[in-house]
Amino acid sequence: MALEEQNEVASHLEDANDLQEGFFPNDDKTQKYGNLLFLLQSEPRHIAHLCRLVTMAEIDSLLQTVMFTIYGNQYESREEHLLLTMFQSVLTYQFDNTPEYSSLLRQNTPVSRMMTTYTRRGPGQAYLKQVLADQINSLIELNDVDLEINPLKVYEAMVQQIEASTGSLPPYLPKSVTAEVAAENEQVQQIIAPRLKTLTDIANAFLETIIDGLEETPYGIRWICKQIRSLSRRKYPDAQDQTICTLIGGFFFLRFINPAIVTPRSYMLIEATPSDKPRRTLTLVAKMLQNLANKPSYAKEPYMSKLQPFVHDNKERVNKFLLDLCEVQDFYESLEMDNYVALSKRDLELQITLNEHPTSAFAAD
Asked: Domains of the chain by range and CATH?
C-alpha cells in the first residue's frame, strides 16, 4: 500500500474514533440528549417551527427522523396524535402566511414534502396495498395493450408500422408532422377513439375502488384532509365546497394516491417494474384522477381534453368523497389521556440510529 494511501486510511480511522467518542457521550450528556428528544416528541410545536427553518436540502433527512424515529411507533395512538398536532401547527402557519388561495399547498415546499413523507408511513402503505394493488396488477398484465392517446405519438407509431410492413410511406403520410396535423388525421382519430373508452373504463374501476375504500382510509390521512377543510373555511369563509375540494384533492390524490399508481414498485405494490405500455397507462390514469381533484388545464397536454367527459361525469361524487374523508372525530381528549399514561410510565424508549444522530443538531442550533 502506498504511503499516501496508508496516511489516508489512518486519517479515516482517527476520524472514526472521534465519531465514536462523540456518539457515545457520558451519562450526563445522554440524559440531556434524552430530555431533548422527549421534549421534541411531546411538544410538537418545536418540530413544526424547526421544519419552517430548514432548507429544502435539509428537509428530507429531518423528516426521515421525525416521521420514522421521533414518532416512529406508527401504530401507537399517542405518537400518531402528537405527529398530527405538529401537522396542525405547520398547516396553520402555511394558511396564515400564504397570500393567495391558488398558491396554497401547491409549491414544492417543506410543507408539501412533509405531507408526502407522512403518507409513506405504515398505515398509508397498508391502505394503498389494500385498495390499489389488485387494480394495478391486473393492468400491468396487459403488456401488449397500447392505450397512448397523444396524437403525435400515435401518428409516429402508425407511420413506423406502415413503413415497416410496406417498405415505404404514401405521399399523404409524411414521416414528420406537427401535433396539430397528427390530431386532425382521420386514421389517428380512429385509433384513439376506442382507447379513450378503455382508459375511461380503467379509470372508473380505480375510482370505484378508492371511493369504496373510504372507511379503510387511515385516520391520519382523513384528519389532515379535515384540517385543510377547516383552515380553508376559516381563512376564506365565502369559499364554496367545490373550491375547497381542490385543496383536499391536491393532498389526497397528488401526494398520496397518484405516486403509488405512477411508481407502484417503489410502494411495494408490485414485484417488478411494469413494461412501457402499462406504465404509460398508469400515468394516464393518474392524470385523469388528478384532473378530478383539480380544475383541469389542457394547455400543455391538449389531447387530455378528450377525457373531459370522465371528469364531468365523476366530479360531483369525487367532491362528496373528499368531503366525506373529512368526517372524523378529533383526538385531543384521548391525546391528553395518552400523555398522562405515558408520563406515569417508568421508562419511555426512543430508538435512534447513529446515522440519525447528527439530525439533532438542527434542534440544538
From this structure: 51-118+343-365 (no CATH), 127-147+182-330 (1.10.506.10)
Secondary structure (DSSP) of 10-23: HHHHHHHHHHHHHH
Exposure string for 254-279, b = 16+ CB within 10 A, e = fewer: bbbbbbbbebbeebebbeeebeebbb
d(CA 187, CA 236): 49
pLDDT at site 25: 57
Residues 6 or more apart whose Cβ sits within 8 Å of residue 158? 187, 188, 191
* Non-local CB neighbours of 92 within 8 Å, separated by 6+ positions: 231
Cα separation, 69 vs 356, whole angstroms: 9
Cβ(112)–Cβ(60) below 8 Å: no
pLDDT for position 295: 78
Cα–Cα distance measured from residue 326 to residue 233, given in angstroms and rounded to the nearest whole number: 13
SS3 category, 300: coil
Would you say the pTM of this structure is higher than 0.85?
no
pLDDT at 39: 76
Rounded Cα distance, 93 and 40, in Å = 19
- Spatial contact of 321 and 211, defined as CB atoms under 8 Å apart: yes
Cα(345)–Cα(347) distance, rounded to whole angstroms?
A: 6
State the pLDDT at residue 18.
46
Weakly modelled stretches of the chain, pLDDT under 70: 1-27, 30-31, 33-34, 107, 332, 334-365
